[in-house]
Specification:
With 518 residues, the chain is an alpha+beta fold. Strands 5-6-7-8-10-9 form a six-stranded mixed β-sheet, with helices on one face. Strands 1-4 form a two-stranded antiparallel sheet. Helix 10 crosses helix 11. The radius of gyration is 30 Å and the shape is elongated. Keywords: Membrane, Transmembrane, Transmembrane helix. This is Sodium-independent anion transporter. It is found in: Membrane. It is a multi-pass membrane protein. Its main location: membrane.
C-alpha cells in the first residue's frame, strides 16, 4: 500500500517545489473564478468555493490526467441557473448527484474514447472560442455599480489605475521567466501587485469586494427534495446536459494538456473521476463542475505536471476559506485579471490563423463556426456538436463523390462492374446510376474488391439494382465483399437472399423470397 501511494503521488516529470508553487498559484486564481461562477448560477459564493475544493481534490487523486485542474466552471453555471431560479438550490444539489452518476456510467462503459471523433478544426475552434470567452469575461472587472444600482464602465483615475496594474501584471508574467524559472511568474506577479496595492495604500477593487470567502468545512448534506419520479424528471434534463458539457470540456482539456506535455491521459478514467467528484459534490452542497482549461494551463505553464499540484491547489483553497480569507480578500482583482488575460493569450491557437489559406475551406468554416458558437452562446457542448456535425456532413459529401465504377465485358460475355469508393447513404443514389440494366447482357458481376458496404442505405442500393435486373430476367453476382459487408448482407436476408456460389469469395444475389441460404 505504501509503494502504491508513493507511485501515485511521486513527481515523475517535475520536482516537488514546482508542484507546490504551481498549485498555490492555481489556488489563488481559483478564488475569484469560483465566486464569479457562483454568482452566475445564483448561489452562495461558498457553494462555488466548496465545489472547487471537492472536485479539484477528487479529480487530482483519481483522474486520468495528472496536472489538469477541475472545479466550478462557467459552462456548468450557465446550465443550472434556470433550475435554481425555478426550483431552488436543493434541486440543484440533486441534479449534481445524478450528473455524477451519469458520468460514472459513461466512464465504466468506456465511452470516453468518443472524443476521438472530434476533428482538429473543432479543437482549434473550441480552444480559440474559449480563449476569447476567458478574455472577454475579464472586462467585467472594468465596470462598477453606481449608487442607483446601474452598471457603468470605469472612467478617469480608477480606470487608468486598473489598466496600469493589469499591464504590470502581464509584463511580470511575460518577462520574469527570463530572470529565473525557480518560482512561477504568475505567483510572483500576484504577490508583487498585492504588495504594491497594500503597502502603497492604493484604492482599487480586491477579491473581498466580490464576496467574503470566509467559511467552515463543507458538511454532508442529502438534497432535501422528494425522492419520486416527478423530481427525477425535473432534474434529468439538467443533469444530462451538465454531464455532457462537463465531459466534453474535460476530455477536450485533457487532449489539450496531452499535446502540451507530450504525454497521454486516460479519458475513461477521467470520466469516472469527474463522476465521483460531482456525486460527492452534490452530497456536500456543491454546484457541479468539470475541468478548467484556464486553470489547467496556469498549472502546466507554472510547472505542474503531477497530481501533487492539483491536490495542493484544492487543499490550498480550503485553507484560504478556513484560515486566510482576510488575507486573500486583500488581493487586487487587477492581478488576477492580468493573469487571466495572459491565460487567454496563451490559450488562443495563433497558429490556426496561419493555416486559413493552407487548409480546405470547410476546415476553416468549422473552426470559425465553433469559435463563434462558443463566444456568443457560451455553450461548449453545442459548439463542439455543431462542429462535429458539419465535419461529418462534409466528410460524407466528399466520400459520396468518390464512388465510381469501371466497366468491362469478359470473353464469356459477362459484364463486370468494378466499384471504387464506399457505398453508404450519401453515395447510394450515384451508385444506382452507374448501371444499365436494359442494355447489359444476361449476367453481370459487381466487384467490391475496392469498395465496401457501410450501412443500410448501401444494402438498399444493391437491392434496387438487383431488382431492376431481376425484372428483365437477368442475373447479378457479387464478388469480393469484405467480411463486414458480408455481415450486413447476411443480416438483411429478409430484403435480399444471398446464395454463396462455389467460387468463393463470390456470391449471388437472388430476389426470390422462397430461396434459402445455402
Amino acid at each position: 500500500m505504501t509503494q502504491l501511494f508513493y507511485r501515485l503521488f511521486k513527481p515523475t516529470q517535475a520536482n516537488l517545489k514546482d508542484e507546490v508553487l504551481s498549485g498555490l498559484t492555481v489556488a489563488l486564481a481559483l478564488v475569484p473564478e469560483a465566486v464569479a461562477f457562483s454568482l452566475i448560477a445564483g448561489v452562495s459564493p461558498l457553494i462555488g468555493l466548496y465545489t472547487a475544493f471537492i472536485i479539484g481534490l477528487i479529480t487530482s487523486i483519481l483522474g486520468g490526467r495528472p496536472g489538469m485542474i477541475s472545479g466550478a466552471t462557467g459552462a456548468i453555471a450557465v446550465v443550472v441557473v434556470a433550475l435554481v431560479v425555478s426550483h431552488g438550490v436543493e434541486y440543484l444539489f440533486a441534479a449534481v448527484v445524478l450528473m455524477g452518476l451519469i458520468q460514472i456510467a459513461v466512464g465504466l462503459l468506456k465511452l470516453g474514447k468518443l472524443i476521438r471523433l472530434v476533428p482538429h478544426p473543432v479543437m482549434f475552434g473550441f480552444v480559440n472560442g474559449l480563449a476569447i470567452v476567458i478574455g472577454m469575461a475579464q472586462f467585467e472587472q472594468f465596470k462598477f455599480t453606481t449608487a442607483a444600482g446601474t452598471v457603468e464602465w470605469m472612467t478617469g483615475n480608477p480606470l487608468y489605475l486598473m489598466i496600469g496594474l493589469v499591464g504590470l501584471t502581464m509584463v511580470i508574467i511575460k518577462f520574469f521567466p527570463k530572470v529565473t524559472t525557480a518560482v512561477p511568474s504568475a505567483l510572483v506577479a500576484i504577490l508583487t501587485i498585492s504588495a504594491i496595492v497594500i503597502f502603497g495604500g492604493i484604492d482599487t477593487r480586491t477579491v473581498g469586494d466580490l464576496a467574503s470567502i470566509s467559511g467552515g468545512l463543507p458538511e454532508f448534506h442529502i438534497p432535501l427534495v422528494p425522492f419520486n419520479w416527478e423530481t427525477f424528471m425535473i432534474i434529468l434534463p439538467y443533469s444530462a446536459i451538465m454531464a455532457g458539457v462537463g465531459l466534453i470540456e474535460s476530455l477536450l482539456t485533457l487532449t489539450l494538456i496531452d499535446e502540451i506535455t507530450e504525454t497521454r491521459g486516460h479519458g475513461n478514467k477521467e470520466c469516472v473521476a469527474q463522476g465521483v467528484a460531482n456525486l460527492t459534490t452534490g452530497l456536500f452542497g456543491g454546484m457541479g463542475g468539470c475541468a478548467m482549461i484556464g486553470q489547467s494551463l496556469i498549472n502546466v505553464n507554472a510547472g505542474g505536471r503531477n497530481r501533487i499540484s492539483g491536490i495542493v491547489a484544492s487543499v490550498g483553497l480550503l485553507i484560504f476559506i478556513l484560515f486566510l480569507s482576510s488575507y486573500i480578500e486583500m488581493i487586487p482583482m487587477a492581478a488576477l485579471v492580468g493573469l487571466m488575460f495572459m491565460v487567454a493569450i496563451g490559450t488562443f491557437e495563433w497558429a490556426s490563423l496561419k493555416v486559413f489559406r493552407k487548409v480546405p475551406f470547410h476546415d476553416v468554416l468549422v473552426m470559425v463556426v465553433v469559435t463563434l458558437v462558443t463566444v456568443f452562446l457560451h455553450n461548449l457542448a453545442l459548439a463542439v456538436l455543431v462542429g462535429v456535425i458539419i465535419s461529418a456532413l462534409v466528410f460524407a459529401w466528399q466520400n459520396a463523390k468518390m464512388i465510381r465504377t469501371r466497366k468491362r465485358v469478359d470473353e464469356n460475355g459477362v459484364k463486370h462492374y468494378e466499384v471504387f469508393g464506399p457505398l453508404f447513404f450519401a453515395s447510394a443514389m450515384t451508385f444506382g446510376q452507374k448501371f444499365d440494366p436494359i442494355n447489359d447482357p444476361e449476367e453481370i458481376v459487381i466487384d467490391f474488391a475496392e469498395s465496401r458496404i457501410v450501412d443500410h442505405s448501401g444494402i438498399d442500393a444493391i437491392h434496387k439494382v438487383t431488382e431492376r435486373y431481376h425484372k428483365m430476367g437477368k442475373t447479378v453476382y457479387i464478388r469480393h465483399l469484405d467480411s463486414s459487408s458480408k455481415v450486413l448482407l447476411n443480416k438483411a436476408e429478409k430484403i435480399i437472399n444471398v446464395n454463396y456460389t462455389d467460387d468463393d469469395p463470390s456470391f449471388k444475389i437472388v430476389l426470390d423470397e422462397e430461396k434459402t441460404m445455402v
